[in-house]
Amino acid sequence: MSTGRLVAIYVAPTGGAPMEARERVDAVAGAGLDGDRYQRGVGTYSGAGSKPRDVTLIEREAIEAVGREAGGLDVHEDQTRRNLVTEGVALNHLVGREFRVGAVRMRGVELAEPCVYLEQLTGVVGARGALVHRGGLQAEILDDGELRVGDPIEVDG
Fold first, then answer.
1. Is 57 helix (H, G, I), strand (E, B) or coil?
2. pLDDT digits over 89-103, tens only?
3. pTM of the full structure
């Protein structure tokens, strides 16, 4: 079993709204994080595609690497528009796999590749290209439960 941890939680009440940091949030199975745009069905990509988009995750290590490798590109965690920031777990390997964040079971659905919208909202030119293949993970929430900053992330196998 490999273990990482949840280091930050963000939600946005509507599409395009600034991300708001939380210390804790309720995860709703099949819907999303309480108070987040996707749980409310008002996100920019709500209803887009047939795959679940309950929650998005990104590695803190990937964000830090962008700053080092892309000429000091200054991308803040909240600017990635991802809900959960992790440490110590390779998210790209979780596509099609179940894992736990605290007591909440999730399933990785697909990589969350960055889009033009990211650069439009943040004004950080080059962020999209720098985050290709390390823009995080879209996941389905399988169990209701509370997520807290500091929760362990456990992946079997």
1. strand
2. 999 999 999 999 999
3. 0.88
3-state secondary structure of 20: strand
**Which residue segment(s) compose the domain that 115 sits in?**
2-155
How far from 143 is each of 82, 97, 107, 133, 150, CA to CA, in Å? 20, 15, 10, 27, 19
Please state the domain count of the chain.
1
Q: Mean pLDDT throughout 105-110?
A: 96
CATH number of the domain where residue 23 is located? 2.40.33.20
DSSP E strands, the chain: 2-11, 20-22, 24-28, 32-33, 55-59, 84-87, 98-101, 104-111, 137-141, 145-148, 152-155
Q: Please name which of 92, 81, 106, 101 lies closest in space to residue 147, comparing C-alpha atoms.
A: 101
pLDDT at 135: 81
For residue 8, give the amino acid letter.
A
